[in-house]
Design goal:
0% of the residues lie in helices and 0% in strands. It is low in regular secondary structure and 59 residues long. This is MFS transporter.
Length: 59
């Protein structure tokens, strides 16, 4: 309501790069391959066996 608009101050952590942000896939970004150990994830639904165990204190 009236007055002057408040200035917006953005805090930047030390060491944070400033300037234009390149678009995704821009030539400035090098492509890095992430090696995987080759261990496959468990099959979907193969880990739902906890319901078969008795509830704590039910013995």
């Amino acid at each position: 309501r009236g007055g002057h608009p408040a200035a917006v101050v953005v805090a930047v952590a030390p060491g944070t790069p400033a300037g234009a942000v390149p678009e995704v896939g821009a030539p400035e970004q090098e492509v890095v391959d992430i090696p995987l150990d080759g261990t496959p994830a468990p099959a979907r639904g193969a880990y739902g066996t906890a319901a078969a165990a008795p509830a704590p204190g039910a013995l």
